[in-house]
Amino acid sequence: MVGIHTLFVLILFIPNNFAKTILVEELTKWTLRNKTSYKCRTMAEPFFRVNCHPIFMKGANYVPAHTLPELSADADAVAHLLKSANEANMNMIRVWGGGLYESDTFYNLADFYGLLVWQDLAFSQAAYPLANDFVASVCVETVQNAQRLSYHPSLALIVTNNEIELFLSSNKSDFGENATRMDSDYKALFIETLIQELNVISRKDFSPRPDPMASTPSLGVQESGKNLSNNPQSLQVMCTFGTTKMDSALKRIQTLCFGIRLL
């Protein structure tokens, strides 16, 4: 059920026999996450699970709250927008990859209002370079933000980019002889590098959340020839690949079973 949810505060102390008790850490949110499975009940019907129940997602894309980045984290503006989403009975917010990594206030309020977050990394509809310095920089950026956000019960899914697969597939004729190289560069940066960096929040030995997804939208890398899909937003293809195998990330992104208090 959509609404305001109780958030639990966990404070840990370690007794010190030689001095006073030490406050080690304070966690503002605490939740349990369980393993999940993917089901596609009918054609073109991927879905999320929350607390082992399939949920119909009602939500919106979230773009920065202000055109000036330094003002986009204004607490009152963010609170108004997420409160409005809650009052409109939304249960998911997608943070658009063409914008910013949002403030801690944003994710704290998403936790409070029971809004799941579909989080794109900040890459959108462009060809990105493979220069060593650039790759090293965005790897650090990715890990820092993933670690910052990973403890929030609202974080349902993290995706490496916004619509770059769609951008590549829709413009092949314009790219001409560069199209193959651009596909290869895309896979090298986002699938072979950044998805691997995101494993920092996809540990298999402790309460795993769904694996990262390659792009919004995406069908994963097809097994035959390792080519990107020609139609990455086709849900029918996604559910009827037949002998074509989706990557393990895509198989698991539609379901999750968080201990978030939505039901």
Automatic annotation (TrEMBL):
Q: Where is this region: Disordered?
A: 206-229
Give the source's domain of life in one word.
Eukaryota
GO MF, one example: hydrolase activity, acting on glycosyl bonds
Query: Where does the signal sequence lie?
Result: 1-19
Q: Where is the composition biased (Polar residues)?
A: 215-229
Signal found in the keyword field: yes
> InterPro entries given for it?
Beta-mannosidase_GH2 (IPR050887), GH (IPR017853)
Keywords of this entry: Glycosidase, Hydrolase, Signal
Q: Which PANTHER family match?
A: BETA-MANNOSIDASE
Q: What is this protein called?
A: IP20046p
What species is given as this protein's source?
Answer: Drosophila melanogaster
